[in-house]
Amino acid sequence: MKKQPISTFEAAVEYLCDMPRFTSKNTLEDTRAQLARLGAPDQRIRNIVHVAGTNGKGSVCAYLHSVFSRAGYRAAMFTSPHLTDIRERFRIGAGLISREDFLKYFLQVYDSLDWETLERGEGYHPTFFEYLFLMAMLYFSKEQPDYCILETGLGGRLDATNAVSHKELAVITRIGLDHTEYLGATLEEIAGEKAGILQKGVPFVYCDEVEEASAVFVKRARDLETEGYPVSKKDYAFLKFQNKTIDFSLHTRYYGYIGVTLHTIARYQMENAAIAARAAEVLCGGDKITAAILQEGLARASWQGRMEEILPEVYVDGAHNADGIRAFLDTVREDGCEERGQRRALLFSVVQDKDYETMAAQVVQSGCFERFYVAAMETKRAASLASLKILWQKEQRKAAERSGREASSLETAVFCRDVGTAFRRALSEQTNDRIYIAGSLYLVGEIKELLGHDKF
After folding, report:
1. Cα distance between residue 398 and residue 392, in whole Å
2. Least confident of 167-171, 258-262, 324-328
3. What band does 406 get if pLDDT is binned at 50, 70 and 90?
4. Is residue 46 domain-resident?
5. Owning domain of residue 27
6. Are 194 and 172 within 8 A, CB to CB?
7. Do 194 and 330 lie in a common domain?
C-alpha cells in the first residue's frame, strides 16, 4: 500500500469507499493506540453517551439529540450507516460536517498512519468504520459540543466506538438475533456483546423487553457496581393515530405521565422515544429536562428511512432483520388502509448476509400486501434476484397452501432487475394504493438517490 496525495473531498470519499478491499478487522487495542497517536481526542470530549442495540439505535440517537437541542445544548452525533451522503454520519446541532472539515480530519488520520510500514505490507490501517470514528473524535474534540452521542457500528464490546476512555451514560436498545456469525447465536450471547459498552460506575438505560437480554444486563450492572434504568411497555401507552402522527402517554421519572406526539406512523418509535427520554432524564435531571422539553424535543425529531413518507402514500423503512421486519409489520397492520379502501404493495430487497429467508417468510405470510415488487440492489452485498425469486415463490406456495388459495396467487410478485425499475413500476401500477419499501437500509439509500436525481 503506497501513500497517495489526496487533496479533495471527493478523493477522500473515494479512498474510504475503496478501503474494504485492502483492510482487515483491527482490535480495540489498535483503535485505542491510534487515538493516542492522534493526541487522545476522545479524552477532550465531554458527556459521551454511548448507544448500542440490535434495532432502534439510530432512532434513539436522533430523539435524544433533539431533546438535548430543545434543552439548549449543543449536541454532536456520530451514527451509521449513511443513506445518500457520507457526511450524514457526523452532526453537530442541525448541520452536517462541512466538506472542508471532512477533508481536514480525513487528512489528519491519513497523515498519522505509519506509511513506511504500510508500504511494506505490514502495520496498522483503520477499517472504513474505524477511520470515520477517528475522524469524528477529532472533529468533536475541536468543536467541543455539550453532549456527544455515539452509535455503535456492530456489537458493542469490540466495536471501535468502545475505544473511548470515558462515558457519562450508556444506552442499550432492543436486542434481537442479528449478525449472529459475529455476536453469538443466542439472545444471551448477543446481549453480552452489547453489554460490553458498560463501564464501572457509569449508569445505563436499557430496553427491558427481552427477558434473556435483561438478565444479562442486570448481572453486568451488579458486577460493575452501576445502576441500570429499564424501559418497557409499562412506560408508554398508545393513544391514537392522527394526521400521520402518533399520540401516546409516556411515564417520566419526574413528571409522571405526559402526553407525547411523534411525527411518524411507526408504532415501534414509541419504544425508542421512551428510551431516549429516560436517557435524557437520567443524564440531566428533572430541572434541565422538563416535561415541555421532552414533549417538544420528541415531537421535533426526525430520522430518515424509518417509516418515512418520501412521496404521498409511499413509505420507506429501514427494517433489515427479522426483528425489524416484525416491528415494521406491526405498524403496517395498524395503518388503516382497509378502512380507507386502500391496498398495499411492498418493494423488497435485502443483503445476502442477513437471515433473508426468515424476512421473506414474514412479509409473504403476513397477508398485509396485495402486490410485491422484488429487486436486486447495486451493493455487492445484495442477495441476487435469482435467489430471491426462488425463495419468494417457495414462500408464496406455502402461503397459498395454508390459505387454500389457487396457485394463481403466485402472480402477486413482480421480479425486477434493479431497484429503479421496481420503483417506477410500483408507482405506475399502484396509483391509488399505499407503497411500502423495506428490507435494507441500502435499499432506502438507493430509493433516496433515485428521488434526488429524479430517476423515477
Report:
1. 10
2. 324-328
3. low
4. yes
5. 9-231
6. yes
7. no
